[in-house]
Design a protein that fits this description.
By secondary structure, the chain is of the alpha+beta class. Helices cover 29% and strands 25% of the residues. A hairpin with a 2-residue loop joins strand 2 and strand 3.
Length: 136
Amino acid sequence: MATGMAAVDAGTHPADPTAEFFAQVPYRARTALTHRHNGTILIELLENGRREPWHISVEHGQASVSREHRAADCTLTLERSLFDRIVDGEAQFGPYLFRGRVLLKGDFQAFAILRRLLPDMKGARDPRSLAPGRRG
């Protein structure tokens, strides 16, 4: 197993999708972001009456993650179980923002950076592959 990676259970799912996602953020940023991306995001995950902070800093497309609870351009607060589903490609933020299950405060552009770092939904396909005459 690679250093810094979460253990994988008997199936193909990480034992802790959230920890796995945050361990991968610096690597995902290399392909998902450009030098023009800058911002900070605080994600507060709620579980058993506790707030678990994860802080992402992006500077010129390079990302780092810490467990510090610090000021950020954008703060997201949501249940850890929902975040697990989002980073596992089983859900998206949008419907849960509208339902009030995700609280977003601050700069929406920083939130857009986070969305670029997320994995695709399971089963998602590039719509261009459905165009006549194209193979995908």
